[in-house]
Automatic annotation (TrEMBL):
One of its GO terms (biological process) is nucleotide metabolic process. Residues 7-142 form the Ap4A phosphorylase 1/2 N-terminal domain. GO terms for molecular function: ATP binding; ATP:ADP adenylyltransferase activity. Residues 146-263 form the ATP adenylyltransferase C-terminal domain. InterPro entries: Ap4A_phos1/2 (IPR009163), Ap4A_phos1/2-like (IPR043171), Ap4A_phos1/2_N (IPR045759), ATP_adenylylTrfase_C (IPR019200), HIT-like_sf (IPR036265). This is 15633_t:CDS:1. Pfam families: Ap4A_phos_N, ATP_transf.
Length: 273
């Protein structure tokens, strides 16, 4: 049964789609198994037609700071406020009713998540009851566990610490923040032990969160050849723009694609917090 929050998302999504304020990107789904793990690969050919802009304006664009895509936002995509955040629908979505939790003031994408950020994520996840949810965060400017060939850090969440009767939202946000920073510290320490250097670039990583666990995956690059990979790739969902890209994934192997944009591991680390 849908909650009021889910009903509002569906209502705004349908209206925005009808009015042309939101674009649903059509895709087909292929299921690929790699070393016993099943992955969902979406093929969205319309993404390949995205205009690349005026190449002659490169120098001018480099001198301008990047614009915040959520400021100002379209009122047609607004779901509700939650403290210092606006909950919005994603204007270009591959999956229907994809929401974005955006800060009202600009924040760098390279900054770590705050307790307030994590509480807002958990708030939205708890408001969605009719289906499983996954939240993700792409940090950086690039953009069965032992079988994964890349460095990853996982923390199992304590359901008692997250239950509504255990404490108020401040305690929940502090708990999530402690788990997040424990993983972050573990990741950085592990990279130092491997003598992995990120040079002068800010550390990039993907964070994935469900109702039961956190996972952080440090990144080495944004793309495997021409295929962009974001957090959802490490949740088992890759997006390709053509049959050729799909064939590349099949031939190379999904895990090899993920390993190619992550950091190849020496020893996988699983933390229970």
């Amino acid at each position: 049964m849908q909650t009021h929050f889910e009903g509002r998302i569906a209502e705004i999504y349908n209206r925005a789609l009808q009015r042309g304020e939101l674009s649903f990107i059509e895709s087909e789904v292929a299921h690929i198994e790699d070393k016993g793990i099943e992955f969902e690969i979406r093929i969205a050919p319309s993404l390949a037609k995205k205009p690349i802009g005026n190449l002659g304006a490169k120098d001018e664009l480099q001198q301008k700071p990047k614009a915040d895509p959520f400021l100002p936002y379209s009122q047609e995509l607004f779901v509700q406020e939650h403290g210092i955040y606006n909950i919005l629908l994603n204007k270009f979505c591959v999956v229907p009713r994809h929401i974005v939790i955006a800060t009202k003031d600009f924040e760098k994408q390279t900054d770590p998540l705050t307790p307030e950020d994590l509480e807002s994520i958990w708030y939205c996840m708890m408001q969605i009851k009719s289906q499983p949810t996954v939240a993700f965060f792409n940090c950086g400017e690039i953009f069965d566990i032992p079988k994964l060939p890349y460095v990853h850090h996982i923390a199992l969440l304590d359901p008692q610490r997250l239950s509504g009767h255990h404490g108020h939202h401040g305690e929940v946000s502090q708990y999530l923040n402690d788990v997040f920073h424990s993983l972050l510290d573990s990741m950085i320490e592990g990279l130092h032990k491997q003598s992995f250097s990120i040079g002068r670039n800010p550390l990039s990583y993907n964070l994935i969160m469900t109702h039961t666990w956190f996972m952080i995956v440090p990144r080495s690059r944004e793309k495997y050849e021409q295929i962009s990979v974001n957090s959802l790739g490490f949740a088992g969902m890759l997006l390709t723009r053509s049959e050729e890209e799909l064939e590349l994934v099949k031939n190379v192997g999904v895990l090899n694609v993920l390993e190619g944009v992550a950091i190849s591991k020496q020893n996988a680390i699983m933390d229970e917090v």
